[in-house]
Amino acid sequence: MENRITKLFKIQFPIIQAGMIWNSGWKLASAVSNAGGLGLIGAGSMYPNVLREHIQKCKKATSKPFGVNVPMLYPNIEEIMQIIVSEGVKIVFTSAGNPKTWTPFLKEHGITVVHVVSSVKFAIKSELAGVDVVVAEGFEAGGHNGREETTTFTLIPMVAEKLQIPIIAAGGIATGRGMLAAMVLGADAVQIGSRFVASEESSAHINFKNEVVKTQDGDTHLTLKELAPVRLIKNKFYTELQELYQHNPTIEEIKEKLGRARSKKGMFEGDLENGELEIGQIAGLINEIKPAAAIVQEIISEFNEVKTSFC
Fold it and tell me: Which pTM does this prediction carry?
């Protein structure tokens, strides 16, 4: 299955595992890379020394390409970028910031740069900034999201119409059928997060994985737009947050309610009542925890089967 993305990343399948905080450590990244996709280590939830450890362990666990996802709004960004260079990482996905800030530095060191966007405007700006690829992410996605609430299957053809560089579709994709649909609309590959949360190699707490499997249509909601939009499973914390919104809270009041390490509490420590449980709408189609390699193979098998049936 060769195309612009598989050639650029030197991978077998155009499947990218999203670099999700508290979920995407070296075990998941190496498992996806070994299965033929591109695994990403999620640097957003890691101190610099922890990131270095994960990169080193990932290099030992796979001889295949892998990358690191770096949300640029996090502290220690300069130290993180230096570690990425010193450890010889060849692919970096940046998000939550201006691609002009770090793209020149990374490309000077021979690193392929991918930037995550949620609108056509920022996709164009990313291409002008010199990135090699954009991830166009619709608001179905979990984690930090765009404020525009543009759906993935609306966003992809609009971005494809304007850009010359490859496009990775993200948000609401967890199956071979979804992958085929995204590629028909103009994507060169897909980035999948939620499905890999419910994998055996994900670093998420088992309580969170089981909650994802239980999640159904309508059980998630995009909120916290004043800070950084995030899609959450509706739990006790979510309910308290919505009650706060009834009183037109200030930014400071919202920050106070969110507190510190709320996502760690939910996804990594397994507190299903008081934690922040980030997941995409596609969780309603996730019914089982499986090895990452089995997930990749299942997606590719369904993709080929459905593609053949329409040819």
Answer: 0.95
